[in-house]
Structure formats: structure tokens, C-alpha cells
Amino acid sequence: MAKLLHISGNTYPPLDKKEHHTKRIWKELANGFEEYHILARSEDNKYRYSKEGNIHLHLVPRITRKSKVFFFSSFWMFYLIKKYKITHLLAQCPIVGGFTTALASRFYKIPLMVEIHGEEYFRFLRQDTLYGKINSSIIRFTFNTAQKIRSLNSMMTQKLRQYGIKKQIVEIPNRVNLKIFTPSKEDYILHTPLQLISVGRFVKEKDYLNLIKNLEAISIEYHLTLIGGGMLKKDYLDYLEEEKIKNKVTLIDWIEQKDMVDVIRESDIYIQSSISEGMPRTIVEAMALKMPIISTKVGSIEGVLNHTGNSILIGSNSKEQIAQAIDTLVNNINLRESL
Asked: How many CB atoms lie within 10 A of CB 239?
């Protein structure tokens, strides 16, 4: 039977430490394999190995918080491939870990599948800077080595083709566990104040600070809930304090999925305010709950969302468009339900 090595630059605890969402995914992916190996980074600076069923987790020292260091530490896979007689390779990123995996694929003549989740790879492919050209060369080397490339939707596939990627592309959309994201929303009567919600890390790409600022342009009372946590939380809190609007925004660092589902479903409108995206899973989760969605049309989002069909699409950081989109949904219950 097949033995697969899954390459990820993320940090994880050993298998026997705690349950987490990704571990549940590994268990599903491991079905049908004799052995399912994962090479990732430890939460500390130690090598760690753990096993559960047919899943083998190999953790190399984290070294730094940034995953870029995995470009070098991922060379540990050469030892793992030889020791465990790996037959298949799966890389989550075409650069960090993916380049090394492509080298290993060529050296050992093992089939490779590469995933693409973010929009940054397309930015590298079109950049003329030295840094961009280096990354573009790495991406192309990895893609041209792979037997299969995973795309999240038709728009992402189209972009790959535009940049001359001719390998077999398989579209495997982000999915949702409907055992958790259920039941869906049924009542579209609005709350007072209007309940707005968004889920995502507190990072510049999500553009939450500008969302908070732009919501002051809407004409009705509102309350915004942001779930995700991250490095920009202090900036958000400072702004809320300065503008004396702390009562209008709730920031949540972490919440169990089953509890998050209740918060989303009890809200009125889901807002995605990103200035850069691939195709966020959170959008599909909101769709599963049948939420009315307002989203910026960035990245590959339009491969899933279409304007007035299943969402209201707006431009990035547009105070006027956000206000208009909210006003449209507030005044049209039929549109809220149909979206």
C-alpha cells in the first residue's frame, strides 16, 4: 500500500498532546494509506515524533516564528523518504517546503501533488523585482515537477493557466463539515442594533481596521463581531478607545467551532473585507449557514461568489460601497433570504 509524506510549514503539537481541527483532517486524509506521514514544525526548538494509528507526525525545530525557515529545515524529508520508503508526496506550499519536495520528487522519482491556497503566489508570478523573480522561478520549478496541482476554484485554475502552468490541475474546493455548520440560518428578521460578523485573523490582509472606520458611514445602529485574533488586535483596541466606539465592536481571539457557529448564525450579515485573499474557508462556512454575505471582490473569491447571485460584491476599502451594500440588504428581506 501507499505511504505518503505530507509537507507543511505550519507548527503543530505532537499527536498525543491535544485535538485540533487539522488533526481531524489528517485522519480523513490518511484513509486508504498504509502510512500517512506529516513533516511540519514543532512548537518549540526540539525534534519530536509521535504516532497515532497510521499517522506519523515528524516535527522539526521551529527556529523562528516565521515559516520561511522551513525552506531549509524541510530538507529533513530526504531522511524520512529513505527511512520510511515513502511512495507519494504532498506539498501545501509551492515555495516553503514545496521547493524541497520538488527536489526530492525528482531525486527519488516519487509522484508529487502541490496545493495552492493563497493569492501571494500569483503576485510573485507577475513581479519584476529580483525577489519576485526568484520566487517565481521556485514556484514554476515546483509546479513543473508536480504531477498534480490543487486549485480551489475555477478562477484560480484560470490564473494558473494564464501564467503558463500546463500541468494537470484538479479543482478541490475548500469544504465545510456540515456536522458542525448546521443548522443553517432560518430567521432573516434584523436585530437592533444590526449584527455584523466576520471571521479571520487580525492581519493587514483582512483590512479590519478600515472596515471598522468605514462602518461609521452607515446610517443605522450596528454591532460588529470579529473572530480570529492576531497581531493587530492592539491597533484595533487603540482605535476603538480613541474614537469611543468600544461598545460597537467585539473582538474574539479564539472560540470553539461549535460556539462560533451559533454566533455567526445569530448575526444578520457576514462581511469579508479583505484586500488580499485566495479563497477563504470562512466564506464557504458562512454560505453553509445560509448567511447573507458582503465580500470584497479580491483574489480568487469570484471563483465562488457572484454578485447578487449568492453575495453582494464590493471593491476594497470603499466606504460608499460598504454603506450601500448594507443599506441594500437591510431594506430588502427577499434579497437577504435569496443570497
From this structure: 15
- Output the average pLDDT for the chain: 93
Quote the pLDDT of residue 215: 94
| CA distance linking residue 164 with residue 171, whole number of Å | 17
Q: Which contacts (CB < 8 Å, 24+ apart) does range 13-22 have?
A: 13/43, 14/48, 14/49, 14/50, 14/57, 14/59, 15/50, 15/51, 15/52, 15/55, 15/57, 16/50, 16/52, 21/257
* Residue 269 to residue 188: CA distance in whole angstroms: 10
Q: Tell me the CA distances in angstroms from 116 to 19, 148, 167, 221, one per residue in order.
A: 25, 11, 13, 40
227-242 tens-digit pLDDT: 999 999 999 999 999 9
Neighbours of 264 (CB within 10 A): 23
Question: What does DSSP assign to residue 310?
Answer: T
The grid cell for 86 is 515513502
In the chain, which ranges are continuous DSSP H helix? 21-29, 70-73, 77-84, 98-108, 120-126, 130-145, 154-162, 208-214, 233-242, 257-265, 281-288, 319-330, 333-338
228: left (phi over 0), alpha (psi -120 to 50) or beta: left
Q: How many CA atoms lie within 13 A of 270 on its CB side?
A: 25
Please give the residue that has the higher pLDDT: either 178 or 57. 57
Q: What span, in angstroms and rounded, lies between the C-alpha atoms of 310 and 308?
A: 6
Asked whether the beta carbons of 270 and 197 are under 8 A apart, the reply is yes
Q: What's the length of the chain?
A: 339
User: Torsions phi, psi of 251, nearest 5?
Assistant: -105, 125
User: What's the confidence (pLDDT) of residue 123?
Assistant: 85
Give pLDDT tens digits for 169-211: 999 998 888 888 999 999 999 999 999 999 999 999 999 999 9
Q: How far apart are CA 339 and CA 287, in angstroms?
A: 9
Amino acid occupying residue 228: G
C-alpha angle 24/118/272, rounded to 5°?
85
Q: Which residues pair with 88 in a beta bridge?
A: 4
pLDDT at 17 over 90: no
